[in-house]
Amino acid sequence: MFDHDFLALFLEIFLINATITSPIYGVVFSTSKRYDYPPLVCNVGWLGLPSVLITILLVAAGALVANLFYNNLIIDNFTYFRQIFPSLSTASTIPTCLDYFKEESLNAPEFIILILLSICSMFFMILAYDLIATYSAIEPQSLCFYVIAASKRDSEFSTEAGLKYFILGAFPSGILLFGCFMIYGFTGVTNFEELAKIFTGYEITLFGAQSSGIFMGIPFIAVGFLFKITAVSFHMWAPDVYEGSPTLVTAFFSIAPKISILANMLRVFIYSFYDPTWQQLFFFCSIAFMILGALAAMAQNKVKRLLAYSSIGHVGYLPIGFSRGTIEGIQSLLIAMFIYVLMTINVSVTVLALRKNRLKYIADLGALAKTNRILAITLSITMSPYAGILLLAGFCSKFYLFFAALGCGAYSLAFVGIVTSVTSRFYYIRFVKIMYFDTPETWIIYKPMDREKLLLLAITLFSTTSFFLYPSPLFLVTHEMALSLCL
Amino acid sequence: MDLVNYLTFSMIPFFLGIWGIFPNKRNIPIMPTLIELMLPVVNLNSLVFLVHLDDMMGQLSALFALTMAAVESAIGPAILVITFRIRGTIAVELINCMKG
User: Fold this and answer.
1) Domain count across chain B
2) Whole-prediction pTM value?
3) Which of A79, A213, A441, B51 has its CA 20 to 30 A from that of A314?
4) Where are the domains of chain A?
5) Mind telling me which residue stretches traverse the membrane in this protein (chain A) (predicted)?
């Protein structure tokens, strides 16, 4: 019955097996007296990295289109390309961790294993084609995240971040589940395809609605998702969690889950519940998102908090793409997301590299231009596409988002977007000012970075700066993804 | 069977769970408890729908959600315990290491 299903899920099966094998290795050898109880976190990390890389190869090698397990999972072009993003971001997170573990003398091999496990559930989240499959993929991912946010057990900050993340992460799961069951109860189906058939031409307005249960279910699902991508008014946990949890966890949180949850959101809201009514929700959410991201980040003095707010602002630009549900919009969303991932990897690797004296305040970056010139140049270049300066990748991504917004008639959205991105340039420029023109009382000399971080920094910097020279591959790929989602 | 009655019965504890977070100023263990209140009630919703619709999907999903709730209720107290071990208190107003 399932002849080809397991073949289609080969890479998930592989990754789960690799994930299961590495804790066995870790547990057996880290408790062995013969080897004097070695700290195995780096070994497990170096085992985890190739398994992610092999997964990327498997994704790239086996392109097929299939509906699996009674239509609970789907593999099409959208999922196929989408899986490459989270696996690439994990592949970039793991090598940056290793140095961190060595310096902190934190022996936690389970950390790598939890990252791999959450990647498995992200894959299933992207593949999910059913409300229940979605929920049961989102939940293991969040469970892994609660644990890795609190992974530094002797730090007050980390445990507090874990606690906050748990409380404010379990809550939206309940809300999401409630929404799913409302939809299930009032339509009788949970499959996205069947839901799409039911919702075709349905008009989910409050007064014109045939069923108030459906009208209630969709906002609940939307709120659950918006909590998870730290949308404004549901974002209150994000800066605290980002600041409190260890830096590498912050780096991972701000990249990988957002891709997979947005993929799932696109699938649910563009394919199943396609309707202008809820698009209003994302419209206003996006406006609030951008304004808060720009204004709140100005008041921040701590680096990680600032990154949290700027990531809130950045994710806020993404709903522009699907607040009108056009193909150009979705394509520009996917482009923006890819570039966001690249830039966030770059910034978080930089923050991880500047770890001497626990870089906490932005003022600690003072005179970085004199102590570490190349890193200062890198940081100022990356910060500028964050704000969107001409000819860098961030500019391209925002340009296409606003272009798509204008193309579908969302003029106010484009206006707010441009105003906020101009405003947000203020605090990115402040970075540059601090690095180049401030002379601090205490000069902080940072340790040189290790090879993996340097490589990652170089790759991401190169691809963000030279993106505009040859952007067509990304455009083709994202167009194909958007088409396979919509058609 | 009266669907509205069952749904109202399950909806009241659900919104009680959402509402209960806000007035709670002193005590953290209440929060996981409230989450544990929400999840089974949502499950009850699913079971009511399953009987109402005469469809097995509701039972399956209720079982899945039950497992997830169980895992959540294992992880939450564990995080609480490590917090308590470090701070010696679990009052909500003292959870403010990080201020914007």
Assistant:
1) 1
2) 0.89
3) A79
4) 275-486
5) 6-28, 40-70, 111-132, 165-186, 206-227, 248-274, 280-299, 333-354, 374-393, 399-428, 454-471
